[in-house]
Specification:
CATH superfamily: Rhomboid-like
Number of strands: 0
CATH class: Mainly Alpha
Number of helices: 8
């Protein structure tokens, strides 16, 4: 009997197909975010005020769910679009279920970090917490799953966006460093919690 080839094995057709599908999906997500921002602009930022995370306010906890879909401006959204597509593609390529679990976990950890440690009488919106979480997933996944291509992706992402790690520091009061920091931490934890079981080499060979 011959078992099904490992779909995450680098260089296989299924591997490249997964990357392609994930890229298309992430590219489709961005126009949706632009549509939401257009509605927000037309409502004079009403969506941001209603759906943003409001630290220390019980009524602001629902922002943990809605804030990643909202942005302060089109400029804010544009700056998030490229890293969201790039990093989201590699996270999604590992499987839709794992992607959704990682995204939900990151959003909750990042959002709670903002809610507990953010400035009172403010609201926070944006996908950057999730983006930093994806960065954490990609950097940790290669180590956790011991796959050389995951390590290569982590190194590439680190080279391209590692400078953004400065965003986890309180360098600008207009930027939610809490969301960035806790998103990154949440991504590292998610890479461990939702790691793919290692496939034994014997399971991939004809028997």
């Amino acid at each position: 009997m011959v078992t099904t080839p490992d779909p995450e094995r680098f260089g296989t057709e299924s591997f490249y197909a997964a990357i392609g599908r994930a890229f298309v999906v992430m590219c489709a997500v961005v126009p949706v975010l632009f549509g939401i921002e257009l509605l927000n602009e037309l409502s004079h930022d009403r969506l941001d005020r209603l759906g943003g995370i409001r630290p220390h306010d019980i009524e602001g906890l629902d922002g943990i769910v809605f804030a990643p879909f909202l942005h302060a401006s089109f400029e804010h959204l544009i700056s998030n679009s490229v890293p969201l597509i790039l990093m989201g593609t590699f996270v999604l390529a590992a499987g839709a279920r794992r992607f959704l679990l990682c995204t939900a976990f990151i959003a909750v950890v990042s959002g709670l970090g903002v809610w507990f440690f953010g400035a009172a009488n403010s609201y926070t919106v944006g996908a950057s917490g999730v983006i930093f979480g994806y960065l954490g997933v990609l950097l940790a996944r290669g180590i956790v799953e011991r796959r050389w291509w995951n390590i290569a992706v982590g190194l590439l992402i680190g080279l391209l966006y590692g400078w953004q790690l400065l965003g986890v520091l309180p360098t600008d009061e207009r930027i939610s460093w809490q969301g960035h920091l806790f998103g990154f931490i949440g991504g590292g934890i998610a890479a461990t919690l939702f790691r793919r079981p290692r496939v034994r080499k014997s399971d991939l060979e004809p028997v």
